[in-house]
Specification:
eight-stranded mixed sheet, single chain, six-stranded mixed sheet, D-Amino Acid Oxidase, Chain A, domain 2
Amino acid sequence: MKAIVIGGGIIGGSVAWRLARDGATVTVFERARLGMEASWAAAGLIGPQVEAQEPGVFFDLCMAGKNAFDAIVDRLARESGVDPEYDQHGALYVAFDDAGIERLKSRARWQREAGARVDELAPDEALKLAPALSPSVRFALYMPTNRRTENRKLTMAYIRAAEAAGAAFREGARVAEIVANSGRAAGVRFDDGSVHEADVIVNAAGSWAGEIRGLEADKIRFYPVRGQIICFEAPAGALGPSLFSPEGILVPRRDGRLIAGSIFEDAGFNKSVTLAGIATITSAVAAMVPGLRGVAFREAWAGLRPASDDLMPVIGESPSVRGAFYAAGHFRSGILLSALTGELIADLVAGRNPSIDLAPFSPARFQNGSIKRVPIDMKHV
């Protein structure tokens, strides 16, 4: 079987790895550089309990994504030769006022009912886990199984493992259209008009997934959501768990870098870092850990989260073109859902039953036009 994956980010790399391990001849076409879009810009969280805002099918998907990642991370490191720095310090979500406390208590209730582990902490208990926390913190949730990875290394781990399994990657190869014959995918056409034939096409083009022509009958709209990140320098080990508040996040790296973010903006394909974004992020960080006011600034960047209208992933076969599959629209959860998405696409391509019910994430859900676009708030933590 010849398979083409459109997009060389973390999702495209994961899909390529799983398809190549199944014996397919896989070629990945990346419009620019491998792993340099949303995968490069992310914070690297493997945290279903902080990604999902309510119980339901998305939270269940996120929990399955974490389990899928745990199941493959050691093998991925071995096959790629890349350590993705999967750290196990957990996540701490803090509240500063009565309203925040009630929101976190509600989150703890529904997550516990769904079978997730979450610990409710008084301020002194939270300070034991993160001594640098602000004394203004009044309550916290600790999610010990919510972890983090170095997303740039993880992305390259998927790519290197896929290459080791036989997949080929092509940078600077902009796919313009999926070509179909008699309702079945037959290949892709590039900007220069040339065609590369294949039996299976997987659209994993992130924020650019909607620009690939040929699947217009599916009526799926993808668009970018800008996120801004600030990176600070601190002594290695200055913080343990990843920190969350209703206003922002702070994710430590092994080498002492602190990744602070993030905001959600409907700004098109504009990847500018803005004064408003910097102010929002630094204010949230200073509120959580006032002692960081003196740490050194290192760099700032912006990335584009790939969103669908309902902010849910689109995973499955096109309802209009057989053999064309979507692995797109992961929004803020591409790192978390990378292993599971690769597994699911490989299962669908091979005719195996997926490990989860994919109906809520099916591309067919958009065809009747009933799904309306969910508005994006600047703060969406």
